[in-house]
Amino acid sequence: MSDNTTGAIRLQAQQSHYREHSVPLYLTSSFTFEDAEQARAVFADEEPGQVYSRYGNPNVDELIRKMCFLEKAEDGFAFASGMGAIFGSLGALLQSGDHVLACRSVFGSTHQLLTNIFPKWGITYTYADAAKPEEWEDLITPATKLILIETPSNPGLELIDLAWLGELKQKHNLLLVVDNCFATPVLQTPADYGADLVLHSATKYIDGQGRVLGGIAVGSKELIAQVRFFARHTGPALSAFNAWILSKSLETLSLRMEKHCENALKLAEALEGNPALEKVNYPFLPSFPQYELAKKQMRLGGGIVTLQVKGGYEAAKRFIDNLQMASITSNLGDTRTIVTHPASTTHSKLTEEERLATGITPGLVRVSVGLESINDILADMQQALGRV
Ligand SMILES: *Cc1c(COP(=O)(O)O)cnc(C)c1O
């Protein structure tokens, strides 16, 4: 894992004549030119240079360079949020008549995009189940342009075999788009399996402290050129301030992920068998249904543990209300441990049937395991479960 850390720390925007050590914030809407000829040349892409912060900005470019390094990508574009990155990328690559094959357990707003927004422009979709890979090939049609997945999924923690999917997309000449938000490039690099575009909500582990929204898409120069054209002219640019925060955060991403994963594994191991729980789900627990796959494609198990509380919604609510330290909020990937009840919050807009199809039962509680002392996290969870 250590081979990834240096670039995330040392790739920096060019130093100014002040020789500052930490990169300054470039809070400027536009950039000036020496003369009219330079302005013409920069606009014509004959000379490199900044133009306008909707197009690019030194802080934003630094974040993109680091993410390209971590995700082994040629180029990228940063967005104001993760959804900006998903909409901006798919909007750029898809046309009327195209079909998307997506895993059923996509993020809630991605589901809205596929089911309620893209159909307005004649873009259709089919959902495939992570648990039934044998069905995926039959769901590909002549109109299928791309495959969109998340692994591990939110909040079901379903995994998809990236090596298998990389071969399937190759065989059918499709684009493979991976939302790598849960794993981060520290735990898995989808480009190793042939992913064409990797998307992130930087709001989660990349920020890591619950401060700012951000998103990014990275991939080949050719695909990013299309994404950049679409995004530059539709306006979802990431602010320089948020880019500065996110770029600084990348310096500690690897360290933080190791600790999130260490705490999550300890929590999952300690809670497995708790009499108030039906099940504890964590990719690196041997009881996890896709344990072998998790070990094969993830360097560590991730920072999310899900708990199936016995007694459904009422019991899950009591567990959450009994917690004394953990925060009740919908974000994840924070230094602070967070609990979320997906069925009544993040996934409440789905039908009961849609929720159950992706493992979101009434008793499911998602725990984003933070960086507090594991003893304190565990004590909080155990006392809350003891009083359910
Ligand atoms: C949060 C999240 C998003 C959306 O990101 P925002 O920054 O909130 O827009 C997309 N995908 C996954 C997997 C997420 O967890």
From TrEMBL:
Example GO biological process: homocysteine biosynthetic process
Pathway: Amino-acid biosynthesis; L-methionine biosynthesis via de novo pathway; L-homocysteine from O-succinyl-L-homoserine: step 1/1
Segment forming the signal sequence: none
Keyword tRNA processing found: no
Domain of life per record: Bacteria
EC numbers on record: 2.5.1.-
Co-factor(s): pyridoxal 5'-phosphate
Any Pfam family hit: Cys_Met_Meta_PP
Reaction(s) catalysed by this chain's protein: O-succinyl-L-homoserine + hydrogen sulfide = L-homocysteine + succinate
Positions where N6-(pyridoxal phosphate)lysine occurs in the chain: K204
Record family assignment: Belongs to the trans-sulfuration enzymes family. MetZ subfamily.
Subunit structure as annotated in this protein's UniProt entry: Homotetramer.
Name of the protein in question: O-succinylhomoserine sulfhydrylase
Gene designation per UniProt: metZ
